């Protein structure tokens, strides 16, 4: 599984843009396209964990702070920054019945079970 983060960030100072996730599946491969808010321009998203519970695969992506740039010398770095990302992966040993993706972080909003953005597709 890989996570790619775009460098094409947008400063969303009013926080009006939604956090979004979409899932596409072809054969044994899947792609998650998303965008979410990060607090600082140097922060990143990271794969937090991957679970297979019964017949549902769950992918958790969360904001990962970078303390190196979170300083008073970097006034322009404070966000929130709307940041696109892509997760690609492959099912090994067969496809599950469903794939869920959770995006979590301080500035992420949505209707997920634990807050944050959420997407699910039945396979």
Give the helix/strand layout.
Blueprint: E1 2-5, E2 10-11, E3 20-26, E4 29-40, E5 44-53, E6 56-64, E7 78-90, E8 98-104, E9 117-122
Parallel strand pairs: 6-8
Antiparallel strand pairs: 1-7, 2-7, 3-4, 4-7, 5-6, 8-9
Short summary of the structure?
Keywords: Plasmid. The protein is mostly beta strands and 123 residues long.
Description:
With 123 residues, this protein is mainly beta. It has one domain (2-122). Helix content is 0%, strand content 57%. The chain has no helices and nine strands. It has strands at residues 2-5, 10-11, 20-26, 29-40, 44-53, 56-64, 78-90, 98-104, 117-122. The strands form two sheets. Strands 1, 2, 3, 4 and 7 form a five-stranded antiparallel β-sheet that branches. The protein has a four-stranded mixed β-sheet with strand order 5-6-8-9, with no helix packed on it. A hairpin with a 2-residue loop joins strand 5 and strand 6.
**How many domains in all?**
1
Outline the low-pLDDT stretches: none
Biggest β-sheet description: 5 strands, antiparallel
- What Rg do the Cα atoms give? 15 Å
Oligomer: single chain
Question: What is the arithmetic mean of pLDDT?
Answer: 93
Order of helices and strands: EEEEEEEEE
Number of strands: 9
The portion of residues assigned to helices is: under 10%
Q: Number of helix segments?
A: 0
Class from secondary-structure proportions: mainly beta
Shape: elongated
